[in-house]
Structure prediction request, 332 residues.
Amino acid sequence: MLFLNVCEKADFLSVIFYLKYLIEIIGIIVPIALIIMIGIQLGKIVLGDVKIIPKVTKSIVVKAIAAVAVFFIPSFVSILLSLVGQVSYSATACWNNANTGTINHFRAIEEAEKLQEKEELNKAMGEAKKELERVKKLREEESKKNAELRNKYKTLKGVFSKDVIYYNQCDFRDYPYGTYGTICSHGCGPTSSAVIASTFLGVSGHTPLDTTKWICEHGGCTSGGTYAGSNAQYLKHVGLEVTGPYYWTESGIDLLMNKLATGNYLALILVRNNTGRGIFTSGGHYFVLTGVKNGEFTIAQVSRPAQNDQTWPLSAFDGDVANFYLVTQKGL
Prediction:
């Protein structure tokens, strides 16, 4: 099949065509040259140089046989290909297709295919350009919207009214997270829940050890981390008021900002970033939003404590927020 495909290529057939042409030329020129040489030798005999007759006679016979053999080379090749063709068509396909008509036919097909490929490439490039323009427009709109949101919340202030109890999940690297790892490797969700529960209700009974145990026993622990709903379920279990999940939309951000600004709410947020270049994580991660300062968030980051020393703008979260829950204590 591969051989047949090659024999439908105009350039390859052109090589075979010139080879056939060369064989035909050899079949004409060489016999003519040999006949001329035979004629010269016969002339010498006619002129009376009888001494060379035995030697020349042998040479003339050899040249005559060679002339005949070379003259019939094209015929021998055709006969041989005909015999082979009875066994395998592909073996004679190239030779038979090597003529100007067939070559021009396949060349026209190849040119048509190239033209079609060029048209398809131009079409694909046009569609890609349109898609890039669409994405650029969306990004410009998103950037404009984010700028409007930043201006909207620029003067908004409000940090949680109590001291936030902070836990670093890797302070518990020796404690299991179900059967999947440790609190350090998998337990950002239970640790964040512990930050919220301990801040509202006190440390007793609400440490990362307590939250992880309860969440895992109730089916919330997996090899990929904690179900968001399981964190919320635990916080409700200990008596806190939990609403959500909410999403990173204009209405969701507006609600989040205004609730945090009261000083009575904490937010459990889940971010995801699989690019390896995320600000808060290179995968999926929970932590706590604790308030707002001049339109930027204060946070309790349970895996990167250095990030707690600064505030974070809305743009730091763009595209990475999966969802968030708002948590408060009943009666506040």
About this structure: The chain has two domains: 2-98, 158-329. The CA atoms of residues 279 and 316 lie 7 Å apart. The chain is about 55% helix and 15% strand.
